[in-house]
Structure formats: C-alpha cells, structure tokens
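S.,

Sequence below, as promised.
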Amino acid sequence: MTTTSKIQPILVDGQWVTESAANTFSSKDPSTSESIDRVYPVSSWETCDRVLEAAHRAFQTSRNLAPSKIAAFLDDYASRIEADAKELVEIANRETALPKSPRLADVELPRTVNQLRLAAQAARNESWRMPIIDRKANIRSCYMALGPVAVFGPNNFPFAFNSISGGDFAAAIAAGNPVIAKANSSHPATTERFGQLVAQAMQATGMPSGLVQLIYRTSHEDGERLVADLRLGAVGYTGARGAGLRLKAVADRVGKPFYAELSSVNPVVFLPGALEERCDKLIEEYVTSGLMGAGQFCTNPGLLLMVKGPKTDAFIQGVVSKYTAAPAGTLLSDSVEKSLVKSLGILNQAGAKCLTGGSKLPGARCAVANTVLQITGEQFLSDPHVFQTEAFGNAVLITVCESLDQIIRVIESLEGNLTGCIYSDTQGSDDRVYGNLADALQQKVGRLLNDKMPTGVAVSAAMNHGGPYPATSHPGFTAVGIPSSMLRFGKLTCYDAVRENRLPSVLRDANPTGNTYRCIDGVWTLD
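The prediction came back faster than expected:
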C-alpha cells in the first residue's frame, strides 16, 4: 500500500521521526472493516539499522544504571498510563472492538500498570539476579543485563502484552535492557499512544535516549535481518506459529535467545464424577470461558476431553444450545477471521462433526458463528496433528473417548500447551484415576489447573505462562510472573577471583539493599 497521506512518526533514539517509507499500512475497525484514517510506515532496513545502533549505545548506559533509576522510570511510565487511561481505552476499543468496560478499562489496563510496578519493585530488590557467593573459592555469579531486546507484540492484548507496555517489555527493561518495540499491525495507534507516554517518562527520569524505540512493521526479510543482528541480545515474540518459527530459525542460526509464545489448544478433562455431580454448572463455566473475548485468549479451552455416556451427551447438548443462542463476538481483525475459518475447514475436512456454527457471519463485521465441533477419541488418535489445529476464536472441539485410558492416550499424543485442566467431583469418586491423568497432563502443559477454567492469567510471582513446544519455544521460562519472567532477558555471569571493588554491587560482601536474597556459601540469606 502506498499513500500520500501523512505518515505517523516512529520513535528512534528519543526522537519522533517521520520516515519516508515506500510502503505503508492502516489498521481497520473490526466492527465495520473500515480503514482507520492513520497511516503507518513499513520501515526500511536503514531505519532498522539506526534503531539497532541507538539501542546498542543505550545498552552501554542501561546495563550499569542503578536499579533504583530503572525502577523510577517504570513507576513514572505506569503513572502516565493510569492518567491517560480514558484516551488509551478509546483508541484500543476502536482498533480491536474489545469492550471498553470491563475488558479494557477495568481489567487489562490495571493489569498493565500493575505489571510495570511489579517490575519496578523487582528491579529495586535485585533478588531476581539470583546472586551466589562462594567465599572459600572466591567465585561469585549473578544474572546481568543481556542486551537490547526486540519485542513483537500480539493482537489479542493491546495493553497487557503490547510490545511497548506489556509483560515482555516490563521484564526486559527491569533487567536493564533497551527495548525495540515492534507494534502489532492490528493496533498501531494504541501502540503509538503508549510510545508517546513512554517517551515522556524517559525524558522525565533521565533515561538514555535509545532505551525504548518503536517501529510498526518491516518486510519479512528485514524482520529476519533484525533478529539476526549481533547488536540484538534477545527476542520476545507472541503471535502466529508460522511467522514465529521463521524468526526462531533465524535466531537459532546465530545462537540468539528467542522466547516465543506460538499456539495452544489448552486441553480440559471433565471426569465422570464431576459431570454426575454438577453438569449444569460445568456447562456454564465452559461456555463462559470458551466465548470470553470471542475466544481470543491464548488460554482459551479449545479442546475438551470426556468419556462417553448419558451425562456427556447432556453436557454437549447444553453447550451447543448456549453456543447457538449466544451472540458471536467481534474478532480482532479480518486476518483472525480468515484464520479461524481456515482452521475450521481443516478440522471439518478431517472428519470433525459441526454441531453448530462453522462459518463466517454475513455483513462487514469481523465475525464467525459460535462453533462447536465433535470427534471421537479414536478419530483424534488416528491423526493427532490435524486435530490439534488451533482454531483461534469462538470455537471448541469436543473429543468423546471410550474410556479414561483412551483419554490418557489422547493426552500422551498432544503437543505442548500453556494450560491443562482436570475437573473432578468433590466426593472423591474420581480420585483413583486423578494421579495417572495428572502425571500425563503435567508433562504436556506449563500450568495444571483443577476445577478451574484456564482463561485468566494472574500476574503472580508463581505464575507460569509458558510450556513445552509449541506453546512456547522454551519450557523452562514464563512470560508472566515477575521476577521469574526477567530471567529470560538476563545473562548468567560468573566472577572468578575478581577484586571486590570491581564486582557488581549485588555480589560484594555488603548486601546492596538489605532486602536482596543471596546464596552465600550454600544458604539463601539477607545477610
């Protein structure tokens, strides 16, 4: 797309710069499919090179900044977001069609602010560095800043996972790294507004000018070249599996950490005792979770596993009735709509029976009818790969198995997922089978839940928003849960016989904050 309209500026080295771009794009209002009258550049390699160089320079300063200064920046930014909440909500609502309230204003924006403040707290405390001191051998180690981080944000959380305000951003900055934010094309105006606020916060707190920079889109070739560049320390990516794997292959070739969230069907198991005990309640829980946000959550319960029987039949009838009656939500973009229709076609062609929905709704709105598909356990086991096709949106696949043993075989054939849930009765009749089922499921997921839908992801230090591939690209790290999420953007550094005055303050004899936990001669302590 080329245009003569005014092109929105990018944030490069502390300055808003209007790029003379050969190609541009605009976002669309998904409720009408009409283009929004703001034009954004597809940045050239020359621009990417400038951004990388500025981030590299900024890193020479940020890696040695006092944690209190980084924390002050994050706190200042959080306060500016709070003060600008009304404007941010208006812009994001138009670009994503997500409800202003409660979704954007009452849930996602406060979560975003909370993440930033938790990151500030972790930066001040420094326990995230995991300092280890062996006094006898005079060897000490801790995590240090890794280098500039490129963050590719997703389409479904314009605030809490935004490339310039979300969890990856907060973790990377709190660890002392500059961030190159690559906006998601579905909500560039929202990201631009965050960019304006973050630039104000950088100036107010005296941050290096290249600490946070913003571009909107690149060509595939330049995106891969950026990922491979030696000036970049790591990548945080949330998005489509295909594009993510292409970038990961580039990062792997040069040995660069690439933390990606790619796809997940999030299996849920309803055990027979639970269905007998509270079938109607489970119908309500499952439908509410599956249709929340038009199903556009990375933890949407897309695969349900059950044992055949009268209660299972009644449950499915109840779900189908509610999916048919409920209004279909607006999808985030026409690309999400096309992807969902394509995935439903793949599942249908493979033999899934469509019980309701299954097609695009008429009209300009980005919307697909609420969809319930059903297969047998035998069908799943005959082609596990195709029946794990992620139908991102308001669609679920119910797999009715012959037995609990068959459910376990289905679970053992799964790829990695973010979450897995087991619902059991409260009287203990399901307890005898729980252990084997949980053992199989926990190997396939990053978060195991009991009697609770996976849709929400709490901002908790104990949270794991990760999992085996392809849920994420590395099963040992989380994208949510500060300070654990910060370790992705740190480098473990060992200091052997280094003089004390040359050590990072966190490894010197005196505790730098009085509140930093350090492992001294094998004992974690505040000493």
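The chain has a mean pLDDT of 96.

Coffee later?
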